[in-house]
Structures are given as structure tokens and as C-alpha cells.
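User: What would this chain look like folded?
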Amino acid sequence: MRRQPAFTEQSLLAELVGRELSSIEFVRDYLQFRFDGPTLTVYTSPVVFSGGRSHAVTDAGYRDQLVSLIGKEVSDSRFKPDQEFVLGFTTGEILRVPLDATSRPVPGEAMVFNFNDDARRTVVV
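Assistant: Here's the prediction, encoded as C-alpha cells.
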């Protein structure tokens, strides 16, 4: 009998609420978001909503918008399987990461979520 993990994507994302985004690492074909311990690796292109505008990977200033989230506290997290996950920040910005099949660069993973704690909890979406 296969054991089910004691956590879900939503429960891990909920643990980000109250944490600050401490860094963003731009790696060739993916991004890593660090929250003073937990690391979120995404293989799709997030969209930043700020000041009433959306900022996508093809927009000028996109990376600046991502970097502007560093040091801001997560206020909300939502997970919709095979659609998206969303992080809201206390300052009003929103980070949306698409999880649908058409947004994935290749079939397979869209996101890997690692909580670098004693339990080494990992979720692959």
C-alpha cells in the first residue's frame, strides 16, 4: 500500500504566508524563489501583477518587477491543480505561476517545491 504524504501543494504554499521572499535566482530555463528556507523552483514563466498592470516575461522591465518582490511578505497563497498557483504580497503585488499544459516548456514538471526542513518535504507539480 502506497503511503500518502502528510502535506499537499496547498498546505506547503500556505506555509509561505508570513514569510518574506529573500531571493530570486535566474537559472537558464527556470527560476528559484527562496523564502528563508523554502525554495520554489518554477519552469514556467510567472506573471507579476503590480500597480494595476501585468508584467510578463516578454515585457520590458519584467525582471525588475520580479526583483522588486524581494523583501516583501507573502500574505496569501492559492493553488489550482493544472491551472496556476498564486502568491499575494502584503504590499498588493501578485505573483501568478501558470501550471497548465500549454504553459510548460516541455511536458512534465511546472514547479518543484522544497521545504528544506528536517522532513525534506518536496512536491512536484
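The mean pLDDT is 82. If you want, I can go into more detail on any region.
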